[in-house]
Amino acid sequence: MVKAIKRFLGDFKRTIKLYEDVPSIARRMFVTNSFDGILAAIGVNVGGFSGDANPFVLASSIIGGGVSMGVISGVIGVYLSERAERVKEVIELEKKVSARLRDSIYWRAALLVPIYVALWSGVGIVLFPTLIAAPYLLAYKGLVGMNAAYISSLAIALGSLAWLGSYLGKVSGESVVKSTIRAVLLGLMGIGLVYLVKSFLGGFL
């Protein structure tokens, strides 16, 4: 069983390597959807928080939003779009070489690469909202107060953005500090905008 799994993973890795652009695409999808998941979680967090809010409702809303976005958009949507592009490439290659490639490693790669990219895409959009919701689960169990959970949740969100910014700085070769600050500022802007919307709606209603 173990040998079969190792053989499958080795074959999967070799097949993925047929496309040199795959790691960068998977990385971009992971980062992009991670930002989406974190900012969406910030929106639910700030928009839904109040002193008497139900911590379980907040936690399930944040995690539920991440899971629904992650599964439907982050995984299935990315898989379908990436598969269409890869299959198109193989079909065009078939026309050039005047041969059927449906039983070749190229066709298999066209089917496996979208799975690889889609999984990385889904990881970020589910992982970070789950971490951000964790303090509310602690509050639900009575281990921390709601205010502490709220502050901790936002701190985790901003810390996650800082990590992503640092990662992007390393990938681009630019200043890690500047990239980190930009990502954190993005989160602070999100918090500020949601506060404005919440205040406006509160005053209007």
What does the model show?
By secondary structure, the protein is an all-alpha fold. It has a domain at 14-153. Helices cover 86% and strands 0% of the residues. It contains 6 helices and no strands. α2 (22-48) runs antiparallel to α3 (55-97). It is elongated, with a radius of gyration of 21 Å. It starts with a helix and ends with a helix. The mean pLDDT is 87.
Amino- and carboxy-terminal Cα gap? 62 Å
Percent of residues in helical segments? over 70%
Backbone CA Rg: 21 Å
Count the helices. How many? 6
Instruction: Please count the beta strands (DSSP E, at least 2 residues each).
Output: 0
Order of helices and strands: HHHHHH
Q: What fraction of residues sit in β-strands?
A: under 5%
| 3D shape | elongated
Structural class of the secondary structure composition? mainly alpha
Query: Which whole number gives the mean pLDDT?
Result: 87
Unreliable parts = none
Oligomer: single chain
* Major sheet characteristics: none
Question: Characteristics of this structure?
Answer:
86% helix, 205 residues, mainly alpha
